Write the structure tokens for this entry.
Amino acid sequence: MKTVYTFVPSPNHVYPDHPERPGRLDVLQPKLKTFEAERIEAKPATREQIAYVHHPELISGLERVCREQAPGIIDYAPTYVTKSSLEDALLAAGGVITCTRAVLNGEAANAFAIVRPPGHHAEPDRAMGFCIFNNVAIGARYAIESGLERVLVIDYDAHHGNGTQAAFRVDEQVGFLSAHQYQPGFYPGTGWIDEVPHAKKRVVNVPLPAYAGDRVYEQVADRIFTPFVRSFRPQLIFVSVGFDAHWSDPITTLGLSTAGYLMLAKKVVALAEEHCEGKIVFVLEGGYDPVNVANGAHAVFIAGTGKGESDVNDPNPNAEPDCESRIEEILRWHGF
Ligand SMILES: [Zn+2]
């Protein structure tokens, strides 16, 4: 079975000097044809599908802001909108739904929604953190609406997936794990271990110190992702993949290399193969260096298709912190 992808570059969703820009995908775009995956066309999400996660007033409010005030800044991150942003965001969310449908109906083994604007900071009632609609959360709800009983989202963007956590805070059918940089002043400031005490083993936060890299993430995958997936027993796994945890990303200070991203993608694909017949949908979140985005996306395709290899050698030059006590604290909190 094949790997499919949607590509929603949203060239008109752009703001002067903003890191979340169409150029993020410029190195990746010409390479897409070289990967052993098939492009499928994203259909825009309907307003009803957006409302799986978001309050209807957010949709109508965005519609008004895009029509009357764009281009402009709508929150402190800063998140911006242009005249086309509502349509772009509908197509980005729709790109995830299109991928999810392809995996659920057996057309594809797995899928990668390469979309922008990104989504994982957007909360049910607000756009936030460069994100308009929460694309991955809408995809997860779509899967539940389609009849699945349990789906799970693993988020290893550099930032906490606060919006996805908010969307599923009281939703027993969706599990959520976020591994992210956590320190005073680092955006968005949420995602500590004990933040969702009523949802142990279902909402898992893995806050990491600066410079955590391939070795730490491998431990996190083997010792936290694995028991989490095993205990939740998902029928489909979503991955919020952000390439801003790369050590050279301009807006973060983590330590993954391209080899680390490939290791992570292979591990989550293996977990999907073990637990849910390989059903996995990757969804692009952040990543602000276009070369890292291209290399990281290639790693996702290598893992998804089982074909090709990465010839990128970009090891993290910084020493990694010791995260043993942190990992043990997380395992203890959840009883894994
Ligand atoms: Zn991020």
